[in-house]
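User: Run a structure prediction on this.
Assistant: Running it now.
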Amino acid sequence: MENTMPVKRTAKEEKARAKKKKWAQIRSNKFLYLMILPGMLYFLIFKYVPMGGLIIAFQDYQPFLGIMGSPMVGLKHFTRLFGDPVFFQLIKNTLVIFAYTIIFSFPFPIILALMLNELKNVRFKKAVQTIIYLPHFMSWVIVVSIFYMLLTTEGGVINNLLEQFGVAKISFLTEKAWLRPMYIFQEMWKGAGWGTIVYLAAITNVDEQLYEAAEMDGAGKLKQMWHVTLPCIRPTIITLFILKIGDVLELGFEHMFLLMNSLNKEVAQIFDTFVYTSGIQNGQLSYSTAVGLFKGLVGLLLVMLANTLAKKVGEDGVY
């Protein structure tokens, strides 16, 4: 009589078998792995390898001495940062602009996606999507240049209209009070199209039977949005919100640098522009690296905190 009992394998044999199975799976899907290779190389070369240079935040780095020859100074540059009066100005400017971004810029694509989802004319819907998506492909140089031509006091379209109505010209580009609204409006105009596509993709996964059930219960379009659409796309909203929280101190160098000038610098100076001015313009490489490292650590901690809170309320989070 044949023995039908399963053959027991040792832990070493099980490990070798699992490894062999893993490599067989990789070989069968080799083209898929080749497709993700460029992305992996990008992050490896431009994101992870440069992390080795963070050591200069703890040195008095001298280019002619190199990383190996520059003396270690410990937390000297971090102590200088926290004791510098400009630190509190940077914190204030960055947090205020980030708060405006969360209040106005973040929900804007969600509202647009909900409105576009209700359009029945497919051609009109696609045309609107294309129009609002176009600014995403423009660089910040082009975006700021367009608004410069519109808002400048020397022949700007907006100020010319104000002048025709007997209203005094407004220095949008130099007055401190206008910097933050202008920054947020440009962020909304440029980024709304991309965000809308993400949320529309999430809305397409909503079960149509839920809308039919809500309609049978007497729910109108607004109630269907509130009680059906938004709860169904909530995981996408929370995931993007967690990722946005990580950018609390990283608002983007290029955009703010193009808007900043000597007259609005007091409210325009943020961590990203400060790293550039102190590191590149003033040659304080170790100090600017310390500022950048502090900014990155704060973003990492906030992402971890937001992800933990999301999981506690029953959401998946980002990891």
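The first helix runs from residue 11 to 28.
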